[in-house]
Amino acid sequence: MSRxxxxxxxxxxxxxxxxxxxxxxxxxxxxxxxxxxARHRDGHVVGQGELVAQFRQVCENIKALVTAAGGQMTDxxxxxxxxxxxxxxxxxxxxxxxxxxxxxxxxxxxxTLVGARDLFDAADGCxxxxxxxxxxxxxPQTPR
Length: 144
Known about the structure:
This protein is 25% helix and 27% strand.
């Protein structure tokens, strides 16, 4: 866990399992991550019809953004997941959790899952889109 952010899970709220109720940031730089879908760098959709494969590609895309900004996945404080089928997501939760841990370890940002009737890239086969916010350590040497 990065030293400039800390999860906030007060005992007056239900126990947070697989997410954090909130995060406190103490300085740093904000990175707003636009909704990422399962497009490979060449533009094609990875994992047609396979939610877990698409989740993996989305995580790779998010990692590329955070790394390019000089951060790491544990700097992410908020994720919003949009899925076309919440039931399918819940049915594949164990496999999705495995992919999640490959990328985030035991870091659990504040998260929201939203069932969406449509996604901008759904016609191309995208089943999931994830956006987020990261608080990166302040580093005056980080290139802009």
